[in-house]
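Worked example 3 (structure in, sequence out).
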């Protein structure tokens, strides 16, 4: 897990509404939630890290789907 969020994601986190922030926090991993509760991260930092994690997972998913589509076209 990343120790500090990238500046880009801190800026994105600052622009979120309260509702968007709450929804994002509800999807946080337990390790990240524990760090937030232990005051190792501010709420903004935790949200920024979660945004970064979700972006990385989405990019990985897109890559995998592209490979699957490529293989299915070959059949």
């Amino acid at each position: 897990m990343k120790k500090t969020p990238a500046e880009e994601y801190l800026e994105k986190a600052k622009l979120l509404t309260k509702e968007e922030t709450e929804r994002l926090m509800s999807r946080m991993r337990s390790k990240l939630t524990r760090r937030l509760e232990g005051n190792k991260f501010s709420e903004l930092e935790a949200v920024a890290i979660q945004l970064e994690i979700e972006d990385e997972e989405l990019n990985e998913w897109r890559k995998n789907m592209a490979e699957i589509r490529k293989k299915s076209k070959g059949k």
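Notes: DSSP finds four helices and no strands in the chain. The mean pLDDT is 89.
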